[in-house]
Amino acid sequence: MSKKIHIDSSDDDFTNFVDDNENEENDNDFSSDSDIIVNKRSRTIPLPSTSSSEEDVSETRDNRPWKDVTIEDNPPKRFDFISCVTNEGPQIHVDCTKPLDFFKLFFTDELIEKIVTEINRYARNKITQKRLSKRSTWHSNFRLSLELYYLDFLDERFKEHFVPSREISVDESVVGFKGKISFLTYNPNKPTKWGIRMYVMADANTGYVYSILPYYCSLTSEDLIRPDLPVSTRIVLELCNKLLDSNPGNTGYDIFTDRYYTSLPLAQELLKLNIHFTGTIQSNRKFSENNTFACRSGNILLSAWKDKRIVLALSSWDVSGTEPVNLIHKPHIIVNYNKYMGGVDRADSYATSYCFLRKSLKWWRKLFFWGLEASSVNAYLLYKIVQTRQNKRPINHLKFVREIVDKLTQNYREGSKTYGRPSTTDK
């Protein structure tokens, strides 16, 4: 038999819910003041258990018992963070000092030459070839090949010039677009409701975009590892494999995600890779006021806490317990989540401050400018870190972008024209 976990200390029932979200796209960001909004698609996961007079004990798929650790908890087995490089952060040459030098780490001459070559090839084909009617043209996915090359090239450069810290966040970034494409996504709860989704792995402490995974519907999901797992789980595993492949020998990372990705199978798979995991889970239950509940199965902690709404979080790193934050006692797992989950949001904040994006009906143009923006943001973050290490004061983001634009265009713009009669006093 199987049963749900109940709390006997209150009149309200407490039931474990796990988000069935492999096909659901509703994933609001979480903040300390506003918890997870209940998703309509949630299901109860029955946990096999044996009865006990002291506590309710349930079992997961690997037959490990769930124990109530609300009052007292022992730390789980933790992997030491091992990095094969002496200094984390920027991996650049000492001659890289100017804003344009940092930008060209990503937008290299090789990439620009490739762009020019493809533009000229496209122009020649347009001029020389007779245009066929739409009915006589066979459409294929070849149009994605150039965009894939462009984003893959930037992805490799992002990983080449930076080694992330222990704490890493995984989230999505939406490139605003409302045209007709098969991989267009819609989320009414996001500021950018329509667009092309980009899955992003970012350093939680700096906001550096370390790796990207564009979403092209089935073209993306078919290439992900572990087809036996939900797509949301496979996305995180794919990005983590990129992380480990780029940093062989590194272990002990701590990954933070939101409720769209969080699941027990994901936490268990990451533990096999010596990676810790923390994330919020969607919940839908009654709960008593100002109450906290935590249960543990092996290295995995499941914690529920209510302030204004209910927050359910899962972690293979944290222990149960609370700490005071602004006169409110919050669980350690929630405090750490709020501290390290904002890496991708920080990068998006930089990108939207002085963005290059313009209204366009071409989806590939949107992705091009998104990659250009991500390169600019990463270049500025590297510049700030290097200047700080050298005890120098870095310029602000606006001046950094302006200097890049000035240097890139100084050989291709005309000087300002002087109107009227020339001055007789100039010598």
From TrEMBL:
Chain intervals with Acidic residues compositional bias: 10-32
UniProt lists compositionally biased (Basic and acidic residues) regions at 58-69
Q: Which InterPro entries match?
A: PGBD (IPR029526)
Region of interest called Disordered, as start-end residue ranges on this chain: 1-69
Q: Where does the PiggyBac transposable element-derived protein domain lie?
A: 151-380
Cited PANTHER family: PIGGYBAC TRANSPOSABLE ELEMENT-DERIVED PROTEIN 4
Query: What is the name listed in the Swiss-Prot or TrEMBL entry for this protein?
Result: Transposase IS4
The species this protein belongs to is Hamiltosporidium tvaerminnensis
